Amino acid sequence: MTDATESSRERSSDPTSQHTIAGTVLTMPVRVRTAHQHTAMFVVDADAAQRMIDYSGLRVCRFGRGDRRALVVLMLMRYEDTDLGQYYEYGTNVMVNPPGTPASEATGLRALQSAGAFVHHLPVDQSFTLEAGRTLWGYPKVMADFTVRNGRRFGFDVSIDGQLAVGMEFSPGLPVPAAFTSRKQVHNTYSHLDGVTRETAGEMLLTAVRYRPGGVELRLGDHPYAAELAALGLPKRALMSSSAGNVDMTFGNARVISQ
pTM of the prediction? Predict the structure, then answer.
């Protein structure tokens, strides 16, 4: 068994390796059995998105006329039954090209199909998942306070150090037939922490999925995270919003891309 001080390169060599976080042994891949998801996709200026994530060494996936647009996904997850416990998590994700993508394949709608999500913000409300996320996958997790509203509309606020970062209100979407969502999705996420850029592969199965054009109200607060989102041109009308009644997923060891 390895511990949390081993290198990321060593961790990535064994997909069934074990790691000890705060006295708890985690066996890869980590499993999420029950979780709820709300997401909103926004089309933003690609140059602004690139400036925001330049520190990672990754390139945003560009599309639209003149390749001037990029896709940013804002997400709230309520994890209920997982190897990391129960917690809330908010994410700001920028769609990026996998490292090594040829220039001829790096732009356009087809490129978006193979793009991965670079995790730029990732506040959580529990210390165990914070330590595991930062240590094992290099996710930029920070502690935050979450206020969640369940009613005709689903809403939440995320505050960090007493400052509102982001708030969102979702209108109900239209149900998507299970035949369109019953296949597992393979997805890659990217992270950058302490000078190291990592890639983490995972699988996801969504059920009870709903979509609608627009459908979300975004509010920005006074926290520096809000200023970064405002620099992308947000808030604006979302391209699409969605929810999933359950998310079943696994994710394994991170692979170091650069350091």
Answer: 0.93
